[in-house]
Amino acid sequence: MQRIIASTLLAAALCALAACSGTPTHESTGEYIDDSVITTRVKTAFVQDKAVDALDIKVVTFKGAVQLSGFANNRQEMERAVQLARSVKGVTSVKNDIRVK
Known about the structure:
3 strands; single chain
């Protein structure tokens, strides 16, 4: 009886761990947390830089790849936002979908 209970608990634990793993289209729990930290750091860099209007630029991170979207007042602001995002630790790539107003 103890073997059946132990086997059942082991199977349940393995299923729970498998549910937390990532796939090419789904983040693992750890990746989700890492991406949240990256997004926060990018937004913080925007707030601290006077050349970038942080409220008009949206940041989304998936497995270290950052996507920027929204609007910039000019080309220099857009380029500065991309530069700041690339400088954040953990960013693997930056996709720029920012449009100039």
